[in-house]
Amino acid sequence: MKKVISLLLTLSLLLGIGSMLSVAAADEGIKVGFARFDFTPDYPAPLGGISARDSEGTLTPDDRVYATVVAISGSDGNTALICTTDLVRTETEWVAPLRAAMSKASGVPESNINISATHTHSSIDTASSTACGIDSPFYETYVAGLAKAAKEAVADLSPVTTKVGTVDIPHLNQVRHTWRGNGHVNGANFESSDAGRWFKEATHQADPELRIIRFVREGKKDVLMLNWQAHATTASCTTDYGRAHKQYISADFIGHCRNYLEAQDGDCLVAYYSGASGDVNPFHLVKARRDLENCPEDTTVYGARLGQYIMDALKNLKSIDVSGSVKTMRMVPPALDKSFTSVMRNSELNAISVGKSIGFVAASCELFCETGKYIRDNSPFEITFVLTQANGKNHYVPSFSSYDYPEILASTPTANPIVYEVTVTKNAKGTAEDYAYSLVAMLNALYK
């Protein structure tokens, strides 16, 4: 049989009809690899995302935290690593050493490596002031693990056919701007009697679209990439803001969804990427957030519910032709305000293209959902992922509309209509729009 195939290929080259044989074949030149490593600590570790506390282990296997590396290689052999890790953020100080170690291990240029965080608020606190900072044994283990995963992902590169799709998921996320009556807006008590109509409107402002890329690999498990926008806070369990109740390490609903999908569909490996969720919280499904004992259950239910929507969407994915090179672009936009810190000034924006079909953008900040939607709606690619908390940390980047809420101001003239994210951001008004325009321009440049 192999001799017959070889003869056919030889004839096709001689007769110039190679394209006839590739109609049902893998995407021309595109290869995808996958690797994952578990970095769940077996000792009490400081947790980030809500307040300082030490972990007490995990509640279930679904709560374990992982780093995932997806390698995508183009027809020209150029390879990009698109990494996601179950941490609350990507430390700016860690990015250069991580890229260097991963590049050395895998042979992929540092400029082609992007590392984003799932933004779980129940994972290891990696700030330099904690026991898991850049001088800690955990840091060394983490860097070595990601480097090893990068090498394994490149070694795992395999030809693919590609399917993509989106699914609108109702009532699983909400913009957290609900009136609280204390001079600003947030979602700490979204069931308060003062919320009223504003809560309903805010709930429907959240971006409901989840994006899916499925790389189908012959003889290997498929790589399923997901992009969804919701803060991973179902497991962090707070009463008043900043006071944690549960102290378990957890990948949050992401881990439960990931394991649910891989159990239901034994042919896939899941990589989850946090989207533009700076102003988006999960809609709690069990009871009000203040009912603390239900938080672990909420995490399980949310992950399974999200997984059920995805499983249904997998039945209707669209096959697309992905061919051509993998290209990357990076820029550091000029600061819009002289008071910016050095971290803000060096905030990265990245874009990746796979042929003329798939685009990725990565920003080292928390973009708001309307900013992410603008980028997707104006992207030239068939499907575009928006990755946040990527390649550094840069706080919230609120959109223009977040600086003023006329409805609240009209109903309560004495109130300050500034949302929480605006009060704490170190970015000037207009930064979100500047980032969005820049990222769309980068995608257009890669598309040409």
Could you give a short description of this structure?
By secondary structure, this protein is an alpha+beta fold. It has helices at residues 2-15, 18-21, 92-106, 137-155, 196-205, 253-264, 295-314, 342-345, 369-377, 406-411, 420-424, 431-447, and strands at 31-38, 46-47, 53-54, 66-73, 79-85, 113-117, 158-168, 173-175, 178-179, 184-186, 209-217, 222-228, 268-274, 280-282, 318-320, 326-331, 349-354, 358-363, 366-367, 383-387, 396-397, 418-419. The strands form 6 sheets. Strands 1, 4, 5, 6, 7, 11, 12, 13 and 15 form a 9-stranded mixed β-sheet that branches. The protein has a 4-stranded mixed β-sheet with strand order 16-17-18-20, covered by helices on one side.
Based on the model shown, name its key terms.
globular; 22 strands; nine-stranded mixed sheet; single chain; 448 residues; 30% helix; disordered N terminus
Provide structural commentary.
The protein has 448 residues and is α+β, with helices and mostly antiparallel strands. It has one domain. The protein contains twelve helices and 22 strands. The protein has helices spanning 2-15, 18-21, 92-106, 137-155, 196-205, 253-264, 295-314, 342-345, 369-377, 406-411, 420-424, 431-447; strands at 31-38, 46-47, 53-54, 66-73, 79-85, 113-117, 158-168, 173-175, 178-179, 184-186, 209-217, 222-228, 268-274, 280-282, 318-320, 326-331, 349-354, 358-363, 366-367, 383-387, 396-397, 418-419. The strands form six sheets. Strands 1, 4, 5, 6, 7, 11, 12, 13 and 15 form a nine-stranded mixed β-sheet that branches. The protein is globular and about 50 Å long. The protein starts with a helix and ends with a helix.
